[in-house]
Every structure is written in C-alpha cells, then in structure tokens.
Amino acid sequence: MNITLRQMTLFEATARLAKLSLAAEEQAISQSAASQAIKEMENQLEYRLFQRHGRTLTLSPEGEALLPRIRQILELSRGITHRDRHAVAGHMTLAASVTIASYLAPTLIGRMQSTYPETRVKLSIENSESVLDSVAKGRALLGMIEGPATHPELTITPWQTDQLVIFCPATHPLAQKPKVTFNALLRERWIVRETGSGTRSILDAELQRLGVNIDIAQALNRQEAIKQCVLAGLGIGCLSHLSIARELASGELVALNTPLNLSRRFSWVAAPERTNHPLHQAFIALCQQTDALARS
Length: 296
Fold this sequence. Notes:
two-stranded antiparallel ribbon; nine-stranded mixed β-sheet; alpha/beta; 12 helices
C-alpha cells in the first residue's frame, strides 16, 4: 500500500469542505485530478471513503473512522516539513458561539495577532451545535461554546463562568418588582435564542428541571433582534449579562430577580489529535493569561 501525503491532504480537505470541487480548489489541482486521487486512495484501502448526496459528499463509516488518524499523520508531517515545528505562525479558524464571538473573541484575536504577528485568525460565528460540527470536521482548529455539551470525538474543557439574565424594558410592570415569582414569569411571553444555541440549552434545562413551560413568542438567532423585540414590548428576554450590559447600565433594560438558576460555563472545544498544534496552544495560553489578569 502506498498512500501519499497528497492523497491524505485531499481526503482531509474533502471531508472538511464536503465538496470535491472546493477541496480541489484549495489544493490548487483540477477536479478530475482530485477525483482520481480519491479513487486511487479508495482502491488501495479497498473501501469507500465518501457517500454522495447530490453535490455534497459525506464520509462513509470507514471514512469517519479514518479521518482522525489522517489528521494526526498530517500534523506530524507538518512538524517535519517546517524548520521550527513549534513556531506560532500561519492561519487558524476559531469557531465561536454568538455571545463569545461578539463580546470576548475580538479582544482575544487582537492579542493573538499582536503577540504573534505571523498569525491570522478567522472568526466563524455559529451556534454551539455548529461549533462542535465545525471542529469535528476540521473546518475550525478551535471552538468556543456557551453551554453544556458532549461529543464522542472532541475534548471539551470548561473555561469561565457566565450568567444568563431574564430582562424586560424599564417600563414593564415587572421592572418594579424586587423579586419575580414563577407564576409571574409563566404569565409572560418570552423572546429567546433558537434551539441549538448554548443560551437556549441552559434555559431549557432549567425549565425542565423545574417542570414548567413558558410561552415562547419568538425564537431568534440574533441577540440584537431579541433586545429590540423586548424593548418593543413583545415579551421578556433571556441573554448573557455580557450582551445586555450597556442597556442595563443605561437603564433601558432591567435585569429581573427570578428563582431561575441560569449560570453556565464557557468551554473550549478541540479535536484531541490537534491540541498540540502551536496555534491551538498559543491561543489557549492567551485566554488563560487574560483570565488571570482579570482576576488580579
């Protein structure tokens, strides 16, 4: 068997991008040459690597099992072909869920690129489920999510604590209450994040624990849209304190004192075979340094 690094690189790119044409473009070869390389690899392995669904390719079960090992080999080859395998340089994609991407990631990316001028970090804003998928499929080197999660192929490491807030406009009757009861909350209409987001998963888990249901008027994937709907009187909202800090400070919005426990942990997400990547380690180190400075 003589599988080449070129074939493995093309296989990894096709798995990550889900289209042979995009993988061929990334590797600067023709689509026919890419197709031939994948076929030759499949012939040598004696099993199919992909299943075709229209114009999209998905990994076969055998391809799913092979992909982590191929990525390990490619990481090792990178150390051989680069003179300084520990150098922090190159491009990385950071997939982050909305709150982190909006309020924490820009500062971290700025520090990364100023500390290591030869790096470039691309930010991909996704909900938590999509972040897990992006890291698992190699579209992102590192993920940052907002809610509890598990994944059979990924390492998920708790990072820092965040607090969700139930809020309403300053003109709302509940804004004057020193404490809001369950019954009062159940009488309200709610503007919340979409299913699959970290914020929504925390809210749903707490409501399930308490055995109650709420009246969801809108489920939206944009924090600004949720804030504007609440300000327009369409319902009460639930978002991270980070995302409504300015409106709370200005008095436009009021945080309600409720019986709900809505504390959560932000987490890092990585594929185990890529945690030794210099860019991954450098970014995590900067996050930890930032946390230490914030606590001092």
